[in-house]
């Protein structure tokens, strides 16, 4: 890793090591820090990175996060940027410094004190978390899938519930193994399909006191009139048919009003009995962004940026990904919070910041919608591809699955390069030959 101590070297801080933030830090490290043209620092509260669209697989146990995660310190060493562990909770725009909260271990002991890091250019890439909309009982009784730790907590809770029921000859109460997923977006739908596969796999590994048909029920509760409301209706229709074949209950146009230990209540007066509750409805950016009076944010805490991804409050601050409210010309909404948008924005900002250091004008960001895909695990993949010539093309089955997998490969290539991704893919094939299809611990 480059060791730059010259105070005159331009200091770039990227806050957030998600898909966009990590790709950006990697590109800037290779293009600027390696040559001594800038000092690049990535700050994140986690030690490792995993692609967020894979968290539903971690939660279901069909993906072992410890095999697919990337260590920030190692990535920084290989790509010439510094990694600093911690949660940024404030930005001083006048002093041009970010404040990082203390880090504590599992015993409550402070291991890293509060620190401040100066910057010349700041990029906010802190992503998003689920929005509970202040509904009573959601925080207390629902599980979330905003990060790897929460996904692993869900997976442990799932296994413990199955083991508990198996050793007692069946569920303790009728709905103990019923899973209710609030939110019929891509995360909720994909999680439901993965859980259906896992439920059937458990019985093959000796948990034969559990009958998937009798004891397990999976429900998706969606407030909108249809699941996948942000995607074309024909994708929703095709997905609804696939989920119905799996026996997954779809409760559309049902707005949740309350949650307790045993059930979920909706505005229509309906109650859904369930032992495991997952909240995957709505997003908002981290709340510390809206606490800074000088920084313009919207109603869900996103940083309001211009067409060059600069904060409208301070041109030295950029924002990308889910935490940015970026204009989408020709539409009545901002750029949607999708992985492809974060990838595009990271690529643009890698060029923009290099141009900024040379005193050149910054390019304008234009979101390119390449379509949307929803994976139902081994059962199906459905989606549409966008093209300038053909328009929107519906795809399903094997072709859709290959395109879906290629999205993750693109992310890996941005981080590792083509050669290393080839060997990672080869190693993954060998791992599958000697490991069970689901994580059992």
Question: Can you describe what's shown?
Answer:
This protein is α/β, with parallel strands linked by helices. A hairpin with a 5-residue loop joins strand 8 and strand 9. It has 13 helices and 27 strands. The radius of gyration is 22 Å and the shape is globular. Helix 1 packs parallel to helix 11 and helix 12 (397-416) crosses helix 13. The two termini are 36 Å apart.
Radius of gyration: 22 Å
The number of domains: 3
- What is the beta-strand fraction? 15-25%
- End-to-end span in angstroms? 36 Å
Task: Assign the structural class, choosing from mainly alpha, mainly beta, alpha/beta, alpha+beta, or little secondary structure.
Answer: alpha/beta
Mean pLDDT, rounded to whole units?
89
Inertia-based shape: globular
CATH architecture of the largest domain: 3-Layer(bba) Sandwich
CATH superfamily label of the largest domain: FAD/NAD(P)-binding domain
Q: Uncertain runs with pLDDT below 50, 5 residues or more?
A: 1-5
**Within the CATH hierarchy, at the fold level, what is the topology of the largest domain?**
FAD/NAD(P)-binding domain
Number of strands: 27
Name the quaternary structure.
Answer: single chain
Name of the CATH first level of the largest domain: Alpha Beta
Percentage of residues assigned to helices: 25-40%
Main attributes?
FAD/NAD(P)-binding domain, 34% helix, five-stranded parallel sheet, 3 domains, alpha/beta, 441 residues, globular
